[in-house]
Specification:
single chain; Jelly Rolls; 6-stranded antiparallel sheet; alpha+beta; 10 strands; 4-stranded antiparallel sheet
Length: 235
């Protein structure tokens, strides 16, 4: 290493992707009621299932229709209120909105649940025409398979160009500069919020029992303004 004179030195992160992680403070009873409801709806067959699935999956994964948060059932409404409270908080903090501005921000959404059994997976995808998405874990399943990536919610690093050339000057970059995926082994009551454009997948689940999750996509309209009227922040 060449000798150099001391000089002002700063490593500055740039082009970050915001993820929001929230743990429900008391999820056990809510998750029990959600599980009972979802199993009952699954037993009723195609009436509640997604009639037009697009993303690759197999028969070990059940996907509901996309109107979940419109269901009047009490546990669904409780979960919806929890998810919206966390999402609005994230939007407020990331955009610097005042309470008055937040009151003018209205959400439209689609939402659904998955029940995944041994061998089930959900292939790589993102969620077009929405700004924010979320996944809430009702039950992670019981996994003693020893498979390290079993049931992982895995997000592809969007900085794909950073693998153009790799030598030992960048091979050991730590977070947030490395080029690997961002993985979550979800636990009961955990909510993950993320920008809808980020590619992600659910790796095959090799545990026993059921892995149960709720997912949603959200888009927003603010009364009296639009994105075109807001200048882009520059640094």
């Amino acid at each position: 290493m060449p000798a150099v004179q001391a000089a002002p030195f700063q490593i500055a992160p740039a082009f970050a992707v915001p993820f929001v992680l929230v743990d429900h403070p008391q999820p056990a009873e809510l998750n029990r009621r959600l599980s009972e409801l979802f199993f009952a709806r699954e037993r009723e067959g195609q009436r509640w299932a997604n009639p037009d699935p697009l993303v690759e999956r197999n028969e070990k994964l059940y996907e509901s229709n996309f109107q979940l948060f419109d269901w009047p059932d009490a546990p669904v409404q409780e979960l919806r209120d929890f998810c919206w409270a966390q999402l609005y908080r994230a939007v407020r903090e990331l955009n610097g909105y005042s309470i008055d501005e937040l009151k003018r921000l209205h959400v439209a959404a689609e939402s659904w649940f998955h029940i995944t059994r041994k061998g089930g997976y959900f292939a790589l995808h993102n969620h077009p025409m929405h700004s924010w998405s979320g996944v809430y874990c009702v039950a992670p399943g019981e996994d003693t398979s020893g498979v390290r990536d079993s049931g992982l919610l895995s997000f592809i690093n969007p900085m794909a160009a950073n693998t153009m050339f790799i030598d030992m000057a960048i091979a050991r970059f730590g977070h947030p500069y490395n080029y690997g995926p961002r993985n979550f082994q979800l636990k009961a009551g955990q909510l993950v919020l993320f920008p809808s454009w980020v590619l992600h997948e659910v790796r095959p689940f090799w545990g026993e029992g059921e892995r149960i999750t709720v997912a949603f996509n959200a888009r927003f309209m603010m009364v009296g303004t639009s994105p075109g009227n807001v200048p882009i922040a520059r640094h």
